[in-house]
Amino acid sequence: MNANNTPRVGRIAHAEYQDVLGQTHTEYKDAKGNIYTEYIDAQGKVHTYDSSYGNGHFAAAGRESRAGANGLLVGLLVSCIGIVALGTFYVVTRPEKIEPLPPVVNVETPETEPAPVERVVEKPSVTIVPITQPAVQPTPQPAANPVAPQQPTDVNVTVKNSQPNPAVTTPQTPTITDSSLKTAITKKFQESLPNNQLNVTVDSGEVKVTGTVVSQEQLQRISPLLNSITGITKVTNNATVAP
After folding, report:
1. What is the pLDDT of residues 95-126, one digit of tens each?
2. What are φ and ψ of residue 39, in 5° steps?
3. Do residues 202 and 182 lie in contact, with contact meaning Cβ atoms separated by under 8 Å?
4. Among 4, 70, 157, 192, which residue's Cβ finds the most Cβ atoms within 10 Å?
């Protein structure tokens, strides 16, 4: 096949085409009329062969191409046959769906009662006979003596209130101790100022706060929180913001 030593003097390019592998083949005709085919492979190597070898090479390539196409066609046919077989097997072996029968409902027909027979009751006739009553003479009544109207008498009545007036009670204010104030302040700080490190001292209602908080915003909220608690007379805030 490799005819690189074939003299190229006097060769004339006759035709050029591509094979199934995408390689470009060039046909040359020398001075004696012989036809040679030349192509360069992927490694850059030049291959030269005569026409008889080229025909055999192309015939082999064509056979390989046809074999690949035939193999693909056979694979498609086998796949189709397998799908049809599986579908047929499923249709034959699938369980039949039992359709439920509609329920039978017994409708009771109401019995018709016979209409009551009307009976006519004859009432006895009544005859009214008027009876004359003797006239009654009115008896004269004696004249009544006029009664003089009585003069009202003045009566002094004094009504005493038997129930005493209720005494007015003044609600007692619960005594606020320093301990209860400290407990209320500590609870308020824990709810409103998380992660604080504050110390509270209470003496006769005077509150002194020391320690640290995590932000300037918490530091500014200490005084309003203390003012919302009843019983505090004085507030001294020495707390600072933790570095």
Report:
1. 766 667 777 777 777 677 767 667 766 666 66
2. -150, 160
3. yes
4. 192
Fold assignment, 178-241: Histidine-containing Protein; Chain: A; (3.30.1340)
Q: Around Cβ 191, how many Cβ atoms within 10 Å?
A: 9
Closest to 5 in 3D by CA, of 38, 29, 43, 32: 38
Cα(64)–Cα(137) distance, integer angstroms: 158
CB 44 within 8 A of CB 30: no
CATH 3.30.1340.30 occupies which residues in the chain?
A: 178-241
- Strand locations in 171-224 (E): 197-203, 206-213
Strand pairing report for 197-203 and 35-40: unpaired
| Calpha distance 20→51 (Å, rounded) | 17
Q: 36: buried, middle or exposed (CB in 10 Å: 19+, 13-18, 0-12)?
A: buried
- What value does the mean pLDDT take over residues 217-225? 89
| pLDDT > 60? residue 147 | no
| Sheet hosting strand 46-50, strand order edge to edge | 12-18, 24-29, 35-40, 46-50
Count CB-CB contacts under 10 A for residue 189.
22
For residues 71-92, give the mean pLDDT. 91
As a whole number of Å, the CA-based R_g of the chain is 66
Dihedral pair phi/psi, residue 94, rounded to 5°? -70, 145
- Contact at 8 Å (CB) between 216 and 241? yes
